[in-house]
Design goal:
The complex is a heterodimer of chains A (361) and B (48).
Chain A lengths: L3 E4 L7 H35 L9 H14 L5 H7 L2 H12 L5 H32 L4 H26 L3 H28 L4 H11 L3 H11 L1 H16 L1 H14 L9 H8 L3 H13 L5 H24 L3 H5 L3 H29 L2
Chain B lengths: L10 E4 L8 H17 L9
The chains are: A mainly alpha (361), B mainly alpha (48).
Amino acid sequence: MAETLVLPQVHAANRPLQFLRLIPGIVLLAAIGYAGKLLEKNVGAYAKAHHWTFPNIEYVLWAIVLGLAISNTVGVPAIFRAGVATYEFWLKVGIVLLGARFLLGDVLKLGGASLALVAIEIAGATAFMIFLGRAFGLRPKLTSLLAVGSAVCGVSAIIATQGAIEADEEDSSFAIAAILALGALSLFTFPLIGHLLHLGDHAYGLWAGLAVDNTAEATAAGALYSDAAGKLAVLVKTTRNAMIGFVVLGYAIYWASQGQAKTVTNKAAFLWQKFPKFVLGFLLISVLATYSFFNKEQVGSLANLSRWAFLLTFAGVGLRTNFREMRKQGLKPFAVGAIGEVAIAVFTLALVVGAQRLFNW
Amino acid sequence: MAANENRTDATVEVTAKRPFLSLDTWAVIFALLAGALIRAGVIKHIPW
């Protein structure tokens, strides 16, 4: 999959120019997202007026499908690419603002419960991916990258680990491509399976947050099911993201012990550097909302702003997914990723169902 | 396994220097700023 992750190096003099470069792509994200919103409203109304049986397709799916249609037909012209890449920024803005919809007590209760599930998921997924990588004869560092991408948080975890274990850029690119391809598939399969199994919003949100790798896809997969499921999926995924530093540190220590990476001298600084700071922003907004820093209307506005930010994210998820590029990938690592993802999905579903029965959630 | 068997079109452009603030930090600043503007009443209402 063609995926460009641009980490811009901005010189002070170039800053206005760099910012201007983002505008066309951001406008495209907003236009696709808004078109999705209009389609949700108007297609349903049109079908009803003409007495057609037509499923209610939410703006989330419309935005993703419109993005996919552009990406896989005419492609995304160069002028839009820098701005389209900002969807990760909007995702994180949306997550931080979503904190306003959680009372701190709920965050601690749900976050605490999901933390136990996340720890089991990370251990199980890592062990299984390493086993699969060895069984398929993948390069050890590529296996590590696929394992961390599947177990923790997709692309961010892979990029963080690549630097820490000094993996080849080719391995990193391949692991990213496999995780993104599988993430795209999860957008369509997870809601379908959830409905087939008649999962409640709570169970489905937990499952999507635990099993879908990339944060953008986990957010979208949750929102495709329901608003409540989307909220919970983001919370669980954020808990998973918070674990990234510990997992990457573990890999860094392992590869340093093999003489194939630098030794981590200051572990606390390493953990802080890898820690996703938006988790702190999410908690801060939740604390402010809990202690009535915002009134009810203001919380409503923050929640709506979060939805707008996610709308841009969903458009970006569609735009950056190119099925032609997926087909160009080598089969083995994709097969390892796919088998691993199916196993993780089944494992986490069993975890969620088991935990629900055990704790009567 | 041939070295180029796993080649991908994905490109990761990572520049040598780390940016002043990470993407996460900018996202937190943006969200907190929006929260402050809403709290101060500068932004009255955001519809959906």
